[in-house]
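batch job 7 of whatever, protein = TonB-dependent receptor plug domain-containing protein
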Amino acid sequence: MSLAGKLLTGILILLYVPLNVFGWDWQTRVTVIVRNQPIEAVCNILEKEYGIHFSYSRELVNLSRKVTLTAQHQRLKKLLEDLFAPDDIRFTRVGEQVVLVPAQRTTRTISGYIRDAVSGESLIGATVYAPALKQGTTTNQYGFFSLTTVKDTNSLFISYIGYGPHLQAVTAKGDLWLNISLQPTGSLKEVVVSARENKLQEQTQMSKVKLSTTELDAMPRFLGEVDVMRTLQLLPGVGGGMDGAGGLYVRGGGPDQNLVLLDGAPIFNFSHFFGVYSLMDANVVKSTDLYKGAFPARYGGRLSSVVDIATKEGNMKAIHGNASIGLIAAKFDIEGPIVKDKTSFLLSARRSYPDLLLNAAIQSDNTLGPNGDFKAFFYDINAKVNHIFSRKDRVFLSFYKGEDNLGLQQTTSDTSAISGLHTYNGVTSRFKMSWGNTIAALRWNHIYGPRLFSNITLNYSSYTFATQYGHRYVMPALGETTDLFGKYSSRMENSGGRVDFDYRPNPRHAIRFGAITTMHYFKPGNSSFENKGTPVQPLDTLNNSLRVVGGELSLYAEDDWQLNPNLYANLGVHASAFLVEGRVYSSVQPRLGLRYVLPRNWAIKAAYTHMNQYIHLLSSNGTTLPTDIWVPSTQRVAPMFSKQVAIGVAKTSSNLKYEFSLEGYFKSMHNMIENAENNNITNTGATRWDENVIVGKGWSYGSELMLQKKKGSTTGWIGYTLSWSMRRFPGINYGEIFPFKYDRRHDIEVVLMQQLGEHWEFSASWHYNSGTPITVPVSSYAGTGNASPWDPGTGQPVIDRYDNWNNYRGADVHRLDVGITYSKQKKHWRKSWNLSVFNVYNRKNPVFYYMESDPVTKQRYLTRVTLLPILPSITYAVKF
């Protein structure tokens, strides 16, 4: 071989010798091409191809972030800088190894409030995002945020649905306090969509729905009223009571298993007019959060759901208000500054007037006699004061009072012959029933530092029910008067306080902890009866007043924790104790929520929840009524508790127009109570309610599907629920499992809201659910003696024979409601007309069933009763 050939051969050999034979330096040129691979894979390529070894601790350095990289003949140092800088990883050479350690970059905390620029209202759940770091947070329920970032953060992006986005320049290097105001865009369809709006797959919390005021205002109105609870009934997994009535039945639970909070204070009856209207005037509602499961640790005391309602704080800038009048009710609200940008107020009032409309008609035809009277109305009042002492201290004082009244007085007369003389006898019957809530809350927000926020709340809640009845019979000829009078009342009171802390140490942790104490006062049954007639008769009074006091103490802690770029967890525990009648019940309730981000921005979620409930609701029928009685756990009846597991998938489309969620759940419930047959707390012979109840178990399970369109001129959702709810009680249904009265196999909800130009808006909702189970006799036979029930149809005593409980399923329920609103902006005010039609195609949905007999054929058959036919309503409103 020639000399030239030998040299060429040597050069070729050198080119194929691995680099690590001769070593490497920062200027070494490398080539790496990867697509959607973790950083660790890039390090493995460099080690295999170029002999560059990496040394690091997996506990301190996270190389799981996926990257797409095309580097050809790039300097090694430049490649590593680009690769590790986004994760704050510092690298250095030690011998022949590259050592990776976390960068010791100094940090600072940016905190503050985000508010509406026009009214000064704090914005709940607004997004604060640092684009350069791809880190962010959201505001809490008082509009406060805290974000710990590196000192070289130069901008923040703030966004909130219904408001224009805001880019905040950050120039200071230390801790920074910001008061940020967002401009409302006027309507949902005008929102500028940003890339950082909070997406469904980015929320670890599952089984939660946030109801916006925009969606609430656009819903069809029943008898002219926008209704919070009725809108919640249109969500998957949530059912209502009788057709047109209120009440919530969430995932197979009863009405007593819902914790409804108004500015942090519990509500025990949240309906007017037997459930036809909600307790709250929607004009003063700021936000509504519904939790159907996966309850955060800060909530406790109920098994099925939490409805957290926050009212507006009052405009800090100028006086504004609303007034409306409809066919059944009228209302107004006004808000504004007492001291501009420092103190504000909110006041609202509402009253219905069916009694004013019907009384004139009743008295015109003398239906109730010459002195007859009819009353049926409700009213409610909301008041709130908000004062800012400093940027660190703020106080809220809120008050609610609402009451329903139903009264009837009828006067009749007859003529009797006594000893040949005709005498005039007068008969007066009186009936009065009233029920209502009183709620007060005092809250103090305090900021201890840029990362720690606290709220202290003192609250009081009471619910009372009372009924009076009388019968007066006057016989002048005999000089006698029979005057019978009876009354029954029940009362439930809560007073307590809680302290909540919100701590944001860094973007990967959002920690909440606190303590709650509550005193429960129960007076579930107080009845009396007496005869005040003449001549004086012995007083006959029965009083079975029951008074119980219970004390409850709870502690909680929870952490919303980002474990790695794809895995998130909400870990929490709620511990509580209840002292009643000398006995202490205690409970430790773990809470766990998990979220894992899948490819293409899908998220899979799972949750486990343990809940305890120390109070019960005694009800003898399938519909929530004011006569239902709240009672505590006692020596004989232990607290209820439930365990729920849920799993689901969720995704928000890239353009933020559509949201999809699918969830499945299983819930077991223990220590459920049911009235023993033929026993009722209102019986005058009753002693203790807990001697007349049966304790059992319950199960509910199912799946919920929801597809929602959130942007554009057309919005709405489609929801479907497939569910089962079962119960087992010893001594009922032979001790076997039976479908519960809240069991509804299929439930479909379709909601549409359509903007029609500048002035018109159309909305419609269609609801369908399977019939509910009821118990009907399988046969009957003729009875004997006075003890047998009397059948008015046949005029004969009859005895029904039953086999299983809830052995018949009633008719399916479905209904279409529509509404159209015309609004126009004037110079200083805005007017609107709303026309709504409830039950458009006049579906005769059942309220309850009973057995009826045909006097001709002597046959008995099942009859359904319906209450609400097609009902149009019109409302005129002004906003100034």
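notes: The chain is about 5% helix and 55% strand.
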